[in-house]
Amino acid sequence: MKQTQTRAILKRLAIGLIIILGLSAWVPLPYFVEVPGTAENLKHFVTVDGKQDNHDGAFMMTTVAVRRVTWPRLVQSFFEPGSTLVSREELMGDNNSEAYDRIQQYYMTSSQNTAIKVALDLADKPYRIDYRGVYVLSIDDESNFKEDLAIGDTIYAIDGKPFQTSEEFINYVQSKHVGDKVTVSFERDGRRQDAKEMLIKMRETGKPGIGIGLTDHTEIAMDAEVQFDTEDIGGPSAGLMFTLELYSLLTGQDLRNGQTIAGTGTIAADGSVGRIGGADKKVIAADRAGATVFFAPDDTKDPETNLTNYQEAQQSARDNQLAITVVPVNTVTEALDYLSQLKTAEQKKTEIPLAYPSLFCPAAALSTVR
């Protein structure tokens, strides 16, 4: 009798343990895994005056997929090419998921705006820059506005006075005293609101402030109508590829000669291309999508690896035996020059000049040509 009872108890304990282990396997851990995402044809994301790019080939933006880690996914990540485990703090900093997403959407919108400006400059077409205010990027815990403002808000006036630069806004605030009350007018999701609170003493400067991190919010006004359909994608790293796609649409030029060109890199107002994260993963995504060329920034080195994005992508292409040519760029003009030489080489069926000796070399051999 006792043996029967003991077996029944052990059986129930075993079943309970199996259930607990099964459920815990799907409980998210405080980590994320970054893996190669997708390479997206920009024909489907960008239009000018309602028209898509109709030239053969494609310009492609590349992404990194970020997945919440469970125990099964953690094990899977060890066998997935290009995967990197990161903590929640490394990925999001002090932000919650909603704030992180808002910041990423701002970076995406900002990169699109800058890409429009640079493409218009390259195409020699007129435009106007309209100032919208300052964009709220962060809010200090000590700020008296922390219950009123949210990351992603645009402040367009203070004490009823509009301003034309962030410097003008900051100077006005610093002309006040700690403890003074100011009224901030801001816009959120198309709705305008006001909030009145006291200024605090900023830790960094000792001067009065609202207690926010900010950046200028501008928009480009022009004759053409540019539309982006990137609601589910965030971050600034598609700036270079947006610029190339827009320049082709604005001028009607066929820049690709039928080839599939992928790449990554931020875009600055002067046309310079900046460093991004995950170049090693994005080149894998580009290769999987059939791209033959991958543009990568080649200026700033990561302090830990001492590698530029170009070197990271090149190393990933070599390690994963990718059949893709990784091309270093520091400006959008360099990318356009490369495409021009590529087109000429295709048309003439001759080799590219030594400025780009790696053009027809497989990615696995790129370490010998730079």
Automatic annotation (TrEMBL):
It is an enzyme of class 3 (hydrolase). The active site is at residues 237, 282. One of its GO terms (biological process) is protein catabolic process. GO terms for molecular function: ATP binding; ATP-dependent peptidase activity; serine-type endopeptidase activity. Keywords: Hydrolase, Membrane, Protease, Serine protease, Transmembrane, Transmembrane helix. Residues 231-342 form the Lon proteolytic domain. The chain crosses the membrane at residues 12-33. It catalyses: Hydrolysis of proteins in presence of ATP. Pfam families: Lon_C, PDZ_2. PROSITE patterns: LON_PROTEOLYTIC. Belongs to the peptidase S16 family. This is endopeptidase La.
